[in-house]
Write a structure and sequence with these properties.
Blueprint lengths: L17 H16 L5 H12 L3 E6 L8 E5 L2 H13 L3 H8 L3 E3 L5 H6 L3 H8 L3 E9 L2 E10 L7 H21 L16 H21 L3 H14 L4 H9 L4 E2 L6 E2 L4
Antiparallel strand pairs: 1-2, 1-5, 3-4, 4-5, 6-7
Helix pairs in contact: 1-2, 1-7, 2-7, 3-6, 8-9, 8-10
Length: 263
């Protein structure tokens, strides 16, 4: 599930154009694991190039549901992505909704607590001091979000910010060219999604679909109910979805309640 960051062999800034340098780093990352170039490689290569601690990549094919986690470079990045999916709050949802980068250079600032009253303190406890998120867009197509984090506060400098934007552009192009962003994958999914993350996504989608039938609501409302229950009971969405799919748990009419499935 957690991808390794390939080492950089020297500085190529002086020999190629800036976009060319970014694509070269993405290609090197792909070569390090012997696979085709994917959006995951863009996410992973950004960590060393932009000088951040870790990263994650979420993909979405529509506007009804939040993006599904495609790749992550470490456990803290995975926790940050999970928190935002569960809470519906944080830099990633804001970037997806607004269509522009969201840069939180210090999660300890009052502004971060005001903007994300639940996510900001939870992110600090997880080990993040700064978070930078970039929407993945090609024209009118919104493909997801790339998130970067640091374990210390501090802004991205101009070079780092410019590189992060180019990595996000590369990830967006690779995601869209992979196609079928809305389809769960049995193995490695579009954009280089791991089998574990593809399974996690499929369980959440399946649980949401079951809730539409059980509760008589639409897909958006069903996901909101799933997320609300996960938040109220401090459970990861994937674990909760797994219990619903296995019929170990059935959500009741009250958004915070549950009952054993007697079917």
């Amino acid at each position: 599930m957690i991808a390794a960051v390939a080492p950089l062999d020297g500085d190529v800034r002086m020999t190629v154009s800036r976009p060319g340098r970014i694509w070269d780093l993405v290609a090197r990352q792909a070569a390090s694991h012997g696979g085709p170039v994917s959006a995951t490689d863009a996410c992973v290569a950004a960590v060393a190039a932009v000088q951040v601690t870790g990263a994650w990549l979420s993909a979405a094919s529509g506007t009804e549901l939040p993006g599904h986690l495609m790749s992550v470079t470490d456990a803290v990045g995975e926790r940050l992505a999970e928190l935002q999916l569960r809470l519906g709050e944080g830099p990633s949802p804001d970037a997806a909704a607004n269509g522009g980068p969201v840069l939180a250079a210090d999660l300890g600032e009052t502004e971060s607590d005001r903007r994300w009253p639940v996510f900001a303190p939870a992110a600090r406890r997880a080990g993040a001091a700064a978070v930078f998120t970039f929407p993945l867009r090609i024209g009118a197509i919104r493909a997801g979000v790339m998130g970067l984090y640091r374990d210390r506060a501090g802004q991205l400098d101009d070079m780092q910010l410019g590189d992060a934007l180019l990595f996000a552009d590369a990830a967006a192009l690779l995601l869209v060219s992979a196609g079928q962003l809305g389809e769960p994958a049995a193995g490695a999914g579009p954009g280089g999604q791991s089998a574990d993350l593809a399974g996690h996504r499929a369980e959440i989608d399946q649980a949401t679909g079951m809730l539409t039938e059980q509760l008589g609501v639409g897909v958006t409302e069903a996901f909101i109910r799933l997320r609300a229950y996960a938040y109220a009971h401090d459970r990861p969405l994937g674990d909760l979805a797994r219990d619903i799919v296995a019929r170990r748990l059935r959500l009741g009419p009250d958004p915070d309640s549950s009952e054993d499935d007697q079917a």
